[in-house]
Q: What sequence folds into this?
């Protein structure tokens, strides 16, 4: 009836259906089958206690109002905790609703069940419970002042990796407002975007938010950048703060593509972020803007948040070594993603998880390890490290066989001085 599988930590809300009347249970199940948001997985649907702990129980209370309180109390788990309870009643009156709520129900709907009523109850009760439990998503903002560093590709690849490693409910937010690269990388044509959440005269609620999200076949959700470039000017600090505060109650991980245009809206996103990942490459035109970013970030005085630097497209033979970059930034690199043009080119073509299209490539393994670090999981040994070593040895061998032009001593001294100043 509901075809959402339960494995690990799924993206579906686990629901049990209970009640003495079999006809009512069947009718509720039929209505649940037509609910599209939120995603629902049925744990059990009978009169016995749930086979597995469910986040929520929908119970048909019947006509005897004197037993309602006992029926709801009987739903308590073995450890004494009570699941969220949505009550189904037949009498359409305010008095019956009040009695069901006083009996311990978190929300009420009338029989026969309608999908729109079930959806409203599931979303409202789910959000209330998550607030009470203090559930908050891990929000990671990825940015780079210098364009072309691979921020969008890394954001999407991390999203796929997080889904695969932890079965997490993951959302991507495209705050690269004038570029909108994430939709292209995921091969999506969003009908709705975050521009629908920026009306200052209305409140952003979960229904409007979920209507603005675009689902990828993998299970990722995308809050896309506005369709028109000029609409990006309408995205305000308050609107960004509102939808991020709401999203962190609905998702486990939120990855924000901040693009490379600094603005007040990005500062609002950073204020709500758990981690800020700055993507840098092995070049003066990438490292120098990173230094300028650090100067600006220091002036913002955001407490509890420090930029972490990710070296993308790393090549061991590049003269701009890790040591020089770390010395220039005066802080260690958090991770290195090796240059893997073949894997990331295929990633752009397939719009799918690197695990399925790149095999055991160095780029895929490094992205996986970065995702594991964000989840608090230990890193795994990188595959292909020997191939990088042999590649470096071959490069060194070729350099010994090729004539090296002799530089003028003064020119050589000036080039060394320029390198030290730049990095």
A:
């Amino acid at each position: 009836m509901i075809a959402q599988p339960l494995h690990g930590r799924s993206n579906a809300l686990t629901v049990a259906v209970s009640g003495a009347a079999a006809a009512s249970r069947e009718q509720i199940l039929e209505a649940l089958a037509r609910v599209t948001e939120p995603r629902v997985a049925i744990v059990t649907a009978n009169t016995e206690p749930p086979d597995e702990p469910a986040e929520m129980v929908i119970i048909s209370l019947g006509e005897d109002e004197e037993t309602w309180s006992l029926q709801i109390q009987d739903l308590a788990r073995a450890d004494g905790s009570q699941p969220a309870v949505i009550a189904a009643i037949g009498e359409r009156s305010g008095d019956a609703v009040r009695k069901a709520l006083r009996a311990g129900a978190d929300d009420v709907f009338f029989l026969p069940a309608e999908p729109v009523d079930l959806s409203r109850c599931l979303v409202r009760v789910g959000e209330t419970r998550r607030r009470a439990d203090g559930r908050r998503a891990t929000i990671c903002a990825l940015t780079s002042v210098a364009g072309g560093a691979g921020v969008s590709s890394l954001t999407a690849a991390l999203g796929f990796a997080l889904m695969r490693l932890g079965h997490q409910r993951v959302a991507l937010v495209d705050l690269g407002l004038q570029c909108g690269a994430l939709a292209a990388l995921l091969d999506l044509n969003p009908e709705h975007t975050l521009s629908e959440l920026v009306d200052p005269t209305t409140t952003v609620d979960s229904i409007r938010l979920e209507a603005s999200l675009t689902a990828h076949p993998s299970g990722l959700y995308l809050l896309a950048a506005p369709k028109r470039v000029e609409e990006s000017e309408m995205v305000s600090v308050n609107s960004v703060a509102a939808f991020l505060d709401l999203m962190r109650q609905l998702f486990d991980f939120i990855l924000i593509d901040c693009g490379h245009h600094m603005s007040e809206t990005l500062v609002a996103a950073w204020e709500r972020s758990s981690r800020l990942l700055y993507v840098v490459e092995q070049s003066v035109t990438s490292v120098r803007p990173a230094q300028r970013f650090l100067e600006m970030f220091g002036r913002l005085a955001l407490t509890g948040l420090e930029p972490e630097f990710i070296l993308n497209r790393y090549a061991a033979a590049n003269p701009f070594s890790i040591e020089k970059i770390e010395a220039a930034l005066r802080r260690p690199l958090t991770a290195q993603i090796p240059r893997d043009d073949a894997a990331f080119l295929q990633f752009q073509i397939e719009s799918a998880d690197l695990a399925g299209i790149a095999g055991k490539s160095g780029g895929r393994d490094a992205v996986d390890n970065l995702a594991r670090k964000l989840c608090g999981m230990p890193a795994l040994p990188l595959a292909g490290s020997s191939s990088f070593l042999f590649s470096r040895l071959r490069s060194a061998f070729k350099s010994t066989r090729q004539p090296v032009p002799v530089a003028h001593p003064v020119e050589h001294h000036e080039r060394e001085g320029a390198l030290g100043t730049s990095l």
Remarks:
- The chain has two domains: 13-133, 138-384.
- Residues 13-133 form a domain with the Rossmann fold fold (CATH 3.40.50.2300).
